[in-house]
């Protein structure tokens, strides 16, 4: 391990207990959500106390619940970067793969909040009924014979942006539906050396943006935090949250995630 002891988890919410030198003491007692607590650092949020740089403790507005705060961190910042790294999406068509996942669900809602028309995919036809149609105008199941045709039916001129959770699996569909000058923003892949149709994508002048959340520019993270807070305050974000587990059941929480839980898994921290 990079440190002799590591406390896991990077996201959370709570109340500021104390501040370091040069930080406004008026922040003590404020509700905040935090991100990146264990990114390149040893002591994360699976504990009663954690210390983070001041800008990574973001004021949690009265309109935002304690449960929503911990769900805005890595998934939300990744989703925000995927949607907005290449500029505003107002008036665009954005294809979001995996809209039932933690990042995909937030990406779809942020794109809708940003003024885009969202086409969202799920893996199986039976999952369509679970899609948040308030954000996803056109849900598409990838297990149908030709999902690219269905996507093209909703975006006959092609899509402007693609938010990709499974680059290796979906790239042929993506190549078939992109508009010239489109951006594919990928934050995950199933195979670590994926093939893709080079020449068709070259002539479409496609940009492939790869996203590793720990190393986003600080300014991008700060903008994401501000926008996520605003969107949550405005009621633009709906997050499926499962029953919380006590801290001493942290291993069970990890098992739930590993088993593919679609609801966010939270820990309650004792005082």
Task: Write a short abstract of this structure.
This protein has 271 residues and is α/β, with parallel strands linked by helices.
| Average predicted local confidence, pLDDT | 96
Number of helices: 7
Major sheet, described briefly?
Answer: 6 strands, parallel
As residue ranges, the low-confidence spans are none
- The domain tally reads 2
CATH superfamily of the largest domain: NAD(P)-binding Rossmann-like Domain
CATH class of the largest domain: Alpha Beta
Question: Helix and strand succession?
Answer: EEEHEHEEHEHEHEHEHE
What name does CATH use for the topology of the largest domain?
A: Rossmann fold
Architecture per CATH nomenclature, i.e. the level-2 architecture of the largest domain: 3-Layer(aba) Sandwich
In angstroms, what separates the terminal alpha carbons?
A: 29 Å
Model description:
- The chain has two domains: 88 residues, Quinone Oxidoreductase, Chain A, domain 1; 141 residues, 3-Layer(aba) Sandwich (Rossmann fold), CATH 3.40.50.
- The protein is built from seven helices and eleven strands.
- The chain has a six-stranded parallel beta sheet, sandwiched between helices.
Features:
Quinone Oxidoreductase, Chain A, domain 1; 7 helices; 2 domains; alpha/beta; three-stranded antiparallel beta sheet; six-stranded parallel beta sheet
């Amino acid at each position: 391990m990079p440190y002799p002891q590591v406390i896991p988890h990077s996201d959370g919410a709570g109340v500021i207990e104390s501040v370091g030198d040069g930080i406004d003491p008026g922040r003590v007692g404020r509700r905040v959500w935090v991100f990146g607590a264990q990114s390149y650092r040893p002591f994360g949020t699976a504990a009663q106390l954690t210390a983070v740089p001041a800008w990574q403790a973001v004021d949690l507005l009265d309109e935002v619940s304690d449960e929503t705060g911990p769900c805005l961190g890595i998934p939300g910042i990744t989703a925000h970067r995927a949607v907005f790294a290449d500029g505003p999406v107002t008036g665009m068509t954005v294809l979001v793969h995996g809209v039932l996942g933690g990042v995909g669900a937030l990406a779809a809602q942020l794109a809708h909040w940003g003024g885009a028309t969202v086409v969202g995919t799920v893996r199986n036809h039976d999952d369509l009924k679970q899609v948040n149609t308030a954000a996803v105008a056109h849900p598409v199941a990838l297990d149908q014979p030709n999902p690219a045709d269905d996507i093209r039916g909703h975006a006959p001129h092609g899509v402007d942006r693609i938010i990709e959770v499974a680059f290796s699996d979906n790239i042929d569909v993506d190549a078939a539906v992109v508009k010239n000058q489109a951006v594919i923003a990928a934050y995950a892949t199933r195979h670590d050396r994926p093939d893709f149709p080079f020449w068709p994508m070259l002539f479409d002048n496609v940009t492939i943006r790869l996203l590793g959340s720990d190393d986003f520019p600080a300014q991008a993270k700060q903008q994401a935090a501000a926008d996520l807070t605003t969107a949550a305050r405005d009621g633009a974000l709906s997050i499926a949250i499962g029953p919380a587990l006590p801290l001493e059941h942290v291993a069970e929480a990890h098992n739930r995630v590993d088993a593919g839980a679609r609801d966010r898994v939270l820990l309650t921290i004792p005082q």
